[in-house]
Amino acid sequence: MSGVLEKLRARFDEVVGVHERPERLAAAWALGLSPLMGLHTVLALLLAFALRLNKVDVLLGTLVINPWTLPLYFPTAVFVGKRLTGVNVPRLVLPRAEEVLHAAVWRQHAPWLRSVLLAWGVGATLFAVLAGAVTFVALRQAIVIHRRRRRRHESGR
Question: How many Å is the Cα radius of gyration of the chain?
């Protein structure tokens, strides 16, 4: 049984890029942070292929923005974007459910949508750049420290 577990562990280590250089592993995770929700997974994978990064690690990095973090991330990004751009985001009056699919409703809310998308785009881009840089530096350092400790532990056996 322990032989099977060792094989599974070795395969897992290979899949998540444990044998990658710390810089490449950290870059794969940092690359997953993008302001383009919805497209960020596809874009991250395309960049992972182009840069020959571990695809699993890139996908894991894209999971930072998810349905659990979105309620905090989106309004915070809009708030920061409003502060940086000075754009006025008027209060939204939600249409009734039966009106949502009518083009007239979307035309009526176009100014609101433009201002929110601009504020969110600026705030989310800033967050992605900062979070990507912090993720890269912190994760690279954590990987180096972890590997150093692991080597020390294995050589002490």
Answer: 21
Give, as one character, the DSSP assignment of residue 86.
Answer: -
* Rounded Cα gap, residues 59 and 34, in angstroms: 12
What the block records as the tokens of 40 is 């960020």
Rounded distance between C-alpha atoms, residue 135 and residue 141, angstroms: 10
**Which amino acid is present at 66?**
N
Secondary structure element (H or E) that encloses residue 50, with its range: helix 40-51
The string of pLDDT tens digits covering residues 94-118 is 677 777 788 887 788 788 888 988 9
Two tokens, residue 77: 């990004």
| All structural domains of the chain with their residue ranges | 2-155
pTM, two decimal places: 0.70
- Both tokens assigned to 131: 């979070």
Distance in angstroms (rounded) separating the CA atoms of residues 146 and 152: 10
């920061």: which residue's tokens?
A: 80
